[in-house]
Automatic annotation (TrEMBL):
SUPFAM superfamilies: EAL domain-like, Nucleotide cyclase. Residues 32-164 form the GGDEF domain. PANTHER family: CYCLIC DI-GMP PHOSPHODIESTERASE PDEF (PTHR33121), SIGNALING PROTEIN YKOW (PTHR33121:SF70). This is GGDEF domain-containing protein. It holds the Pfam family GGDEF. GO terms for molecular function: cyclic-guanylate-specific phosphodiesterase activity. It comes from the Bacteria. Gene3D superfamilies: 3.30.70.270, EAL domain. InterPro entries: Cyclic-di-GMP_PDE-like, EAL_dom, EAL_sf, GGDEF_dom, Nucleotide_cyclase, Rev_trsase/Diguanyl_cyclase.
Length: 421
């Protein structure tokens, strides 16, 4: 039977939402920014089935304690909605809400020890921020819709209320168009470390947009907004040119680093893209041999034969090729034998619990063994602990990136980190 608390949880009239509703109403009345974050846990039913309902309840309580600590540390207001959902009211803009959501994700990907067992919980996040004219009920509705979208997606932990809800579509399109023209799109770089030597040998380039009203917007949201505004191609072209020109101008401190650049599914299916892209690289002055092209599995399944031809052309011209986020959605070992690859990037979802789950360790080790047998180097994403790194090293992983060393950095911070090597 469905728990009535879970059915009621998160509705605008849910009495447990009162603290969050009060915060949002107060902020709206003061014309101050506010956000709502809804968190839904998963995998608790697996713990219930394997170890009994008391252990599952203890797990929810442990998670609730962690979320309460994060709320207290960030100044958010918490409401436990019953069942497996929580709501947080954030007294700030999208950037502040992103920070809180990031803390939640970092904490909830760690295993919880309850009743003598180590358990992992899954989670999805729906986030909505106020805009002029919002009321409390409308904001909660947008957060609920975002959470529903996150639950329905493959591999996406968080969804922000749709761009047309955050701002009118025409306004957002104008903002993004002007942002490109004015050079407001920035690039940050996450280091990639060679495990054998401990040295930074490359970086992944990531786009950021510091929107004047909505705060910092990451690449996923940025491209979603661009697609809705029919600016996806223009944005992708702009980011490619920006990354290449910035990297080409690096001095001695950064000049030897390899740079990984993400291509979108739309990029790799554009007619004549290989010729256009190679001309762009050469015009920038950045060496082809130091550029790695990253493409996700979503991009591969759009048109695998055409993508394979494109990647072969780029690799034949001197670039290197990587599959990004391997282990999410449509992973297939067939890609490893049918595509011209140099690197395989193991997704964080596979590396998170390799020090706590024998099954995860076996899967990761198997992927590494197959990749090495095919002459493909392996990069582990999302490495956050020394224990994870030790196991990856023992299993023969070649590189890692993650918060164990650093998140995405500006060039000044990256150069300072390089000087410490």
């Amino acid at each position: 039977m469905t728990d009535r608390r879970t059915t009621l949880a998160g509705r605008a009239d849910d009495p447990t939402m009162a603290p969050v509703r009060t915060l949002i109403a107060t902020r709206i009345e003061a014309e101050a920014p506010a956000a709502v974050i809804l968190v839904a846990l998963s995998r608790v039913d697996i713990v219930n089935a394997a170890y009994g309902r008391p252990t599952g309840d203890a797990l929810i309580e442990a998670v609730g304690t962690v979320i309460a600590r994060i709320a207290a540390d960030t100044g958010a207001t918490l409401a436990a909605l019953g069942g497996v959902e929580f709501a947080l009211g954030v007294p700030g803009d999208l950037a502040a809400a992103h920070e809180v959501a990031g803390c939640l994700t970092a904490a909830l990907t760690e295993p919880f020890v309850v009743s003598g067992i180590r358990a992992l919980v899954g989670h999805r996040i729906g986030l909505a921020v106020t805009i002029p004219g919002d009321d409390t009920t409308g904001l909660l509705r947008k957060a609920r819709e975002a959470l529903t979208a996150a639950k329905a997606s493959d591999g996406t932990t968080m969804r922000i209320a749709a761009a047309e809800d955050v701002a009118p579509l025409d306004e957002l399109a104008v903002d993004l168009h002007h942002a490109i023209e004015r050079g407001e799109i920035d690039i940050v770089f996450q280091p990639q470390v060679e495990i054998a030597t401990g040295r930074i040998t490359g970086v992944e380039a990531l786009a950021r947009w510091d929107h004047g009203r909505l705060g910092a917007i990451g690449a996923e949201t940025l491209f979603a907004a661009a697609d809705r505004a029919d600016l996806g191609v223009a944005l992708s072209d702009h980011i490619q040119q920006l990354v290449l020109s910035r990297a080409a101008a690096w001095g001695k401190a950064l000049g030897a680093l390899r740079v990984a650049l993400n291509l979108t599914a739309a990029d790799v299916t554009r007619p004549g893209f290989a010729k256009l892209f190679l001309a762009r690289i050469d015009a920038s002055g950045f060496p082809r041999g130091r550029l790695t092209i990253e493409i996700t599995e979503t991009g591969l399944i759009r048109d695998l034969p055409a993508v394979a031809t494109l990647l072969a052309d780029l690799r034949g011209a001197g670039c290197r090729v990587a599959i990004d986020d391997f282990g999410t959605g449509y992973s297939s070992l067939a890609y490893l034998k049918s595509l011209p690859l140099d690197y395989l990037k193991i997704d964080k979802s596979l590396t998170t619990d390799i020090d706590g789950s024998a099954r995860d360790r076996v899967v990761v080790r198997g992927v590494i063994d197959i990749a090495r047998a095919l002459g493909v180097a392996v990069i582990a994403e999302g490495v956050e602990t020394e224990a994870q790194l030790r196991l990856l090293a023992a299993d023969g992983c070649d590189y890692y990136q993650g918060f164990l060393l650093a998140g995405a950095l500006g060039e000044t911070a990256l150069a300072a980190l390089m000087e410490k090597q």
